[in-house]
């Protein structure tokens, strides 16, 4: 897979190193000469250019990229790069970094963004995820289709503990994608039985989040009840 990253700062370089380690082709683009540090990510391609300029993106052959990541520290730049990547070059997947949470509402399909990643929101979500049991935590927003990646840790008293995945009447527009049980990452097969303490990851429409949370937090009936 070929990936172009606009912004060769610490964030862009870290993403590039990870992608290269996983066997992908990576092109880093930055207009600041001081940001061009080939020795830091020697396996990447480097381009000194303004990613907001069509001529620069032509030189980068953006039409050959499977993914474009707008990772600069400027939200305006990330929006322009995303829009050009999607509308001018037809890039299938555009991921954009949101620096200011107040601008998050702009990062949607109207600006060519498929996935918006807000670092402050993600950090707060991870804090919530670490301390919340029984509460739905939104980890990531997928702009296209108005869907989110959400997590909920199944509480001990949940009525779904001990129930097979196939026996649960999941809400429409939701999909259980992963079960994290201790150190194990499980594919949720129909025969898999849910257990108290399971971290459940869903892709869900935003309109279904409350319904999903209600379903997972319903308490098991006991003799005292």
Automatic annotation (TrEMBL):
Keyword NAD: yes
Domain spans labelled RCK N-terminal: 1-117
rRNA-binding keyword on record: no
Keyword tags: Ion channel, Ion transport, NAD, Potassium, Potassium transport, Transport
PROSITE patterns to which the protein is assigned, alphabetical: RCK_C, RCK_N
Gene3D superfamilies, alphabetized: NAD(P)-binding Rossmann-like Domain, Regulator of K+ conductance, C-terminal domain
Domain RCK C-terminal: 137-218
GO BP terms, alphabetized: monoatomic ion transmembrane transport
PANTHER family, per the entry: POTASSIUM CHANNEL PROTEIN 2-RELATED-RELATED (PTHR43833), TRK SYSTEM POTASSIUM UPTAKE PROTEIN TRKA (PTHR43833:SF5)
Record's protein name: Trk system potassium uptake protein TrkA
Lineage, uppermost ranks: Bacteria, Bacillati, Actinomycetota, Actinomycetes, Kitasatosporales
């Amino acid at each position: 897979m070929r990936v172009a990253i606009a912004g060769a700062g610490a964030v862009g370089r870290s993403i590039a190193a990870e992608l290269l380690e996983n066997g992908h082709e990576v092109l880093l683009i930055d207009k600041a000469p001081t940001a061009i540090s080939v020795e830091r990510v020697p396996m990447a391609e480097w381009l000194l250019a303004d990613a907001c300029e069509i001529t620069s993106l032509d030189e980068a052959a953006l039409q050959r990229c499977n993914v474009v990541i707008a990772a600069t520290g400027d939200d305006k730049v990330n929006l322009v790069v995303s829009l050009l990547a999607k509308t001018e070059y037809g890039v299938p997947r555009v991921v954009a970094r949101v620096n200011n949470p107040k601008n998050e509402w702009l990062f949607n399909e109207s600006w060519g963004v498929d996935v918006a990643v807000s670092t402050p929101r993600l950090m707060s979500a991870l804090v919530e995820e670490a301390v919340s049991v029984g509460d739905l935590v939104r980890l990531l927003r997928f702009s296209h289709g108005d869907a989110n990646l959400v997590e909920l840790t199944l509480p001990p008293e949940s009525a779904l503990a001990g129930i097979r995945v196939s026996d649960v009447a999941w809400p429409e527009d939701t999909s259980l994608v992963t079960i994290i049980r201790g150190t194990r990452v499980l594919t949720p097969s129909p025969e898999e039985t849910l257990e108290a303490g399971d971290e459940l990851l869903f892709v869900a429409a935003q309109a279904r989040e409350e319904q999903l949370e209600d379903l997972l937090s319903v308490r098991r009936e006991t003799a005292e009840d």
